[in-house]
Amino acid sequence: MIKRGITYDYHGVLSDFIGKEHGLSRDEIISYQSRVNAGHQRLVGERKRGGIGFFELPYREAEAREIKEKAQEIRQGIENCLVLGIGGSSLGGKALRDAIKTPLYNLMPRKMREGTPHLFFAENIDPETISRLLEMLPMEKTLVVVISKSGGTAETMSQFLILYERLKRELGRELSRHLVAITDPEKGALREIARADSLISFDIPGNVGGRFSVLTPVGLFPAALIGIDIETLLEGARAMAGRCDLPDLKSNIAYLNGVIHYHYDMKRGKPLFVLMPYADSLLSLADWCRQLYAESLGKRFDREGREVFCGPTPIRALGTTDQHSQLQLYIEGPFDKVITFLRVEALRGDAEIPNPFSSDNSLSYLANHSLGQLFGFEQRATAHALVENHRPVLTVGVPEINEYTLGQLFYFYELQVAMMGELYGIDAFNQPGVERGKVLTYGLMGRKGYEKYVKEME
Amino acid sequence: MIKRGITYDYHGVLSDFIGKEHGLSRDEIISYQSRVNAGHQRLVGERKRGGIGFFELPYREAEAREIKEKAQEIRQGIENCLVLGIGGSSLGGKALRDAIKTPLYNLMPRKMREGTPHLFFAENIDPETISRLLEMLPMEKTLVVVISKSGGTAETMSQFLILYERLKRELGRELSRHLVAITDPEKGALREIARADSLISFDIPGNVGGRFSVLTPVGLFPAALIGIDIETLLEGARAMAGRCDLPDLKSNIAYLNGVIHYHYDMKRGKPLFVLMPYADSLLSLADWCRQLYAESLGKRFDREGREVFCGPTPIRALGTTDQHSQLQLYIEGPFDKVITFLRVEALRGDAEIPNPFSSDNSLSYLANHSLGQLFGFEQRATAHALVENHRPVLTVGVPEINEYTLGQLFYFYELQVAMMGELYGIDAFNQPGVERGKVLTYGLMGRKGYEKYVKEME
Fold it and tell me: What is the DSSP letter of B426?
């Protein structure tokens, strides 16, 4: 495992490279230092007060060891793990699975999986897929992991009721060996059930919101089930925390990335943040990041209660695939995007391109290269073409995709978004806008006390 | 199979519902009629001239029959089909597979697949996934389908060289029974190889671009391999063609959808088009649509050669999943989005939510509903919450996900985008912006005649 720090390259946003109209000067960036210092002080204060919990997660090493041991014990005889969870309860786990084990993991035969079970995330409640998924999973070889911070998420708890009933019917008292609950330590329907049934359970700390919970049991337990080294994951996060301990924009790459994105959104008319890994395995990380940006920064009111309707729109794209779908727009369309490449330096596998034809043809230039070389060249060429067309480009270099670098990336983006919340002057840790849809749904479902909402819809 | 027309509901963009600041009046929409008529005339002219080929595809019924027969013959003894193709050469086929067979298809055991083979799309060249995929596919049971309009796409042809060499080494002369080429009828490296090796091959008509090619063998052949009824797919497309034959905005829902989106982008500051199916199976259709919008409408120059830098940014989202990721931003963030729901009326499977607990608890309201009901309620509640917050909402109703409705949807979006090209005054059928990245890559790969580009990058 290559244990090196990720790199951060912002040459592609400087006016020296993309021109003054769309580029930034170093002075422009550094001029944010005092606002960053103030934001940092406030965050440090909130942290001390216990208001923001994600800061402490990388240091819970003993808990990680416990989770790992428990996971190794529970997965004996298990072929399939089915995680019931949505949003912050699934995106971190998926990002971990896909990054470390590749998105092909569930298609791999047991031997390629080194004996660890399949790991499915039933996020949505689309009954067309849920009913087929249930058909595919024999209960006696399945572990169900139900994850809900509140313990009352409608989608997750509906799935839970279906799975609970089925486990009970098919396995009887064995049920409790096939069910793990991850929820609030005290409150909520799921915690009550876990208590009444003596289910194996893990806690989500009260001061950690869903989208910041990847380094709690929410992300760690599913990861540990498939053999991901969660202790090294925390070590990577600690490395990033150490690197970004001080607010100085010359050393704190998370804050620097936050400043550059904030500035482009609010001062330069570029509210679209494209995150484009050149790695199939990191596309789910971009999905995780998409929630982190959108829910944290999409806010109607600032902390003083003024209407701001702010929030950049995160977009996930994949290199090289989206060169054949979105690149035309990124290069020739409106100047409203900031594009971040995630570039992997050392690959965990490669393939040589042969030339199976005797005579030279127009494909011969491909031969005697590896796919990995072509992959890297395409990223370089695409970045160059964007810069030539005055499009801001940032590059995060990942020495190798592994637990150590992934831990850094999670913490890097969480810190960035926390600082951006300060710059926008909003609360990055709530999500008041989604409440209305929830109560309207309760009304339609006939939940007691919510009847009035049906009338409001008519 | 339910053979009904899709529905189109635009109440959620009218000022009566979302207010004047962000809503439209019917008059505002109808005022585009003369521009639409002019655009329609030009498209009809181009069609007659043979310049735009996608218009004719729904009527190639004899070809569909041939493709179907050939697919049934070829798939004998085959367990895995691997499509090599990227962008327009994969997105249509993936949309078809996922819509008709659900995104779980490749995970299903053979019986649930009704004996048809797995269908993989190797789009990207990420060697970490390609090398694992190759490890998983025994060549003697694998059919490789290579798709490239030009016959020279670097990503696809690199994969092709690797697979060709491997098939040849493992199967010798049997190779030609495991390889199908889909490319230009006359030109390109792939066509030459197909000729020299007497490979089974299909033609992509010269006047049909990649992103409009789903109803050519590009989409039809992979679909037919897994038992999708491609004749009914064309029938659905013909139904939409008939319905949108005249340019009248009162009847032509594709043009109407184009006008509404164009107006929001160019006159009302809403350049973000969110396509949000409430159906796991339609998420890949949104990915297909994302290419169609971005490559067709993202253009630097209009047809008169003036710099316009136009193009809305398409965004794919999934209900209910993205209620827990993006909805906060859509409801409270900037007023820069138009959100289209794809809502499925009749589900192909459902599950009852039981109440396995003896006493009432805070989850009891879920019981005695089906997942499908909850799914539908959540869509309705979400749409309502958006409208209350003055966010433009469109709803496309899909009577059932099947070949007939999918054919309609493909043709609906193609027609819409063709009309939008007219409104923007740009060429919706080219993609000049991606050329630069290609030649820079050739340079880095050392291709003869492209050496100078390496110097330009330094």
Answer: S
A345 contacts in chain B (CB < 8 Å):
none
* CA distance to A401, A451, B342, per residue, from A457 (Å): 48, 11, 20
pLDDT at B358: 78
Does the ipTM exceed 0.95?
yes
Residue among A350, A357, A374 whose CB faces B154 most closely? A374
pLDDT tens-digit readout, A167-188: 999 999 999 999 999 999 999 9
CA nearest neighbour of B47 among B57, B37, B60: B57
The one-letter code for the residue type at B109 is: P
Note the pLDDT tens digit of each residue in B223-236. 999 999 999 999 99
Q: Say whether A403 sits in a helix, a strand or coil.
A: helix
Which among A88, A434, A444 has the least Cβ separation from residue B327? A434
Tokens of A83: 């995680």
CB < 8 Å from B in window 235-264 of A? none
Q: Is any Cβ of chain A less than 8 angstroms from the Cβ of B58?
A: no
Q: How far apart are the first and last CA of chain B?
A: 59
Q: How far apart are CA B367 and CA B23, in angstroms?
A: 38
On the question of pLDDT at A335 being above 90, the answer is yes
The one-letter amino acid at A150: S
- Among candidates A225, A144, A132, which has minimal Cα distance to A190? A144
Q: Which residue(s) pair with A310 in the sheet?
A: A299
Nearest CA in chain B to A192: B361
Give the contacts of B185 (CB within 8 A, at least 6 positions apart). Answer: B191, B203, B204, B205, B206
Exposure string (b/e) for A203-213, b if CB count within 10 Å is 16 or more? bbbebbbbbbb
Place of tokens 């590749």: A102
Amino acid at site B281: S
For B410-430, how does the pLDDT look when each residue is reduced to its tens digit (9 = 90+)?
Answer: 999 999 999 999 999 999 999
Q: Quote the DSSP letter at residue A82.
A: E
From the list B120, B114, B112, the residue with the least C-alpha distance to B142 is: B120
Residues A77 and A141: their CA atoms lie apart, in Å, by: 6
Q: Which residues contact A66 (CB under 8 A, 6 or more apart)?
A: none
Flag whether pLDDT at B306 surpasses 90: yes
| Rg value, chain B, Cα | 23
pTM for this one? 0.98
Inter-chain touch B127–A382, beta carbons under 8 Å: no
Mind listing the pLDDT tens digit for each residue in A197-254? 999 999 999 999 999 999 999 999 999 999 999 999 999 999 999 999 999 999 999 9
Instruction: Please check whether residue A78 is in contact with residue A142, taking contact to mean a CB–CB distance below 8 angstroms.
Output: yes
Q: Do B371 and A132 touch (CB under 8 A)?
A: no
Nearest C-alpha in A relative to B109: A136
Q: Which residue of B has its CA nearest to A362?
A: B189
The torsion defined by the Cα of A157, A158, A163 and A168, in degrees rounded to 10, comes to 80
The domains of chain A, with CATH numbers, are 7-47+234-433 (3.40.50.10490), 54-230 (3.40.50.10490)
User: Who among B168, B279, B331 is closest to A126 (CB)?
Assistant: B279
